[in-house]
């Protein structure tokens, strides 16, 4: 059961969502300064280059911080609460928002090693990355 | 070039926060406090040649012109500021800067929101009574809508809860220490008839017994959204003597925008809160220990604690111990948010952030009634927007 607010993709971000269909997590890398970045941009936020390409990441990360939402942040999430919402720091550096699934919310902690997993969103074709304990 | 002593706030008006407004339009609400602030200063509408507003729901464009026409102004400086809860503070230094640049002489800073009571939602759920369905967003197509909202990272509760978790991990912080902020500010609100929670005592046990919304944050350490409005009139140094009220001189201002999504926030030891606060105090030529009133944005208790450290009022990592060992009430040894803070005063949209500025101004002017701090010379007001994303800090002084 995964009812959610459906992510509004754009032409820029489509490669990210195409990759999730394949069970892959990809982020952009600058071809000029090698900076790896997320969320997606049109220009490298470090050097300004337009030469950004998409490349897979390992899917490994650690929890930088988290909370457990007891009240649903949105009615569409009512059946997923209590819900562990986290900032995960990828092995490659960038941070992203995610949910920690596949475990009791009480075991989630800062520093926990996690691995990306993929979840389909009900009533859509979208596959959403989430993270589970590694 | 410095803003120090260029301008002062000479007029204040506020509509006390209420849970809901009635049929009054936003223009009616805003024009009321606007005119009241001008009259409070003893000026005429004709003398007001600057106007700063924020984006207004229901007015898709032309906001300054629409508001100016409704009030009866023809400003030579017209601006929209959109910095979330830092908007009010951000407006005041921009007014001073416009005055310094010679683009206007007397500028209104105007904030407020309506809040209509919604009808029961059972009708809208009639299509799917058994389970919710995934929803496509209609008009928010931002990176946050795409990469944050699907995970429940919506609104502010989640972000500030995550901030509290990280802070606690790095420095240690107890529920009781956070609750002390809410409790001392309620004492302040009980001396402020305009506060939405006026005359409602609060204890640490009450806070900790309230529902946990997002771990570790309880309901009673989270602001209550309200309707209301607040306006300030800023004028040039050479017009201050014309005003009916004593001036609250703007001595320093600082601002910082660091991110939008909380996943992109800088680490706790280098947030925009410190950048803005230090810049404001440096411009004013003051140190944290010179400040007699800390009027600090308090969407959540954790925000006050973070700001106390970032602004240099206490050492890094010691905010919890600091609030435990100090009396933060208007009668105490370290007054914080003497109006009750938004936690007890209420958060009327961007007028919530403005309330920290209006309280600092009133205290400097000697108009804080029962909660007046004796011999106050310097006040610091801090505004914060998003999830610690947008910051503006102001130093006010009784003397130029």
Which stretches of chain B are poorly predicted, pLDDT < 50 over at least 5 residues? 123-128
Number of strands of chain A: 8
> Approximately how much beta-strand content do the residues of chain A carry?
35-45%
The protein's oligomeric status is heterodimer
Could you say which structural class the secondary elements and strand pairing of chain B correspond to? alpha/beta
Q: How can the largest sheet of chain A be summarized?
A: 5 strands, antiparallel
Radius of gyration of chain B: 20 Å
Q: What's the number of helices of chain A?
A: 1
Strand order of the largest sheet of chain A: 6-5-4-7-8
Helix-strand topology string of chain B: EHEHEHEHHHHEEEEHEHHHHEE
Largest sheet of chain B: 9 strands, mixed
Give the total of beta strands of chain B: 11
Rg of chain A, Cα atoms, Å: 15 Å
Q: Which structural class do you get from the secondary structure elements of chain A?
A: mainly beta
Strand content of chain B: 15-25%
Low-confidence stretches of chain A: none
Total helical segments of chain B: 12
Instruction: Give the overall average pLDDT of chain A.
Output: 97
The SSE string of chain A, one letter per element, is: HEEEEEEEE
3D shape of chain A: globular
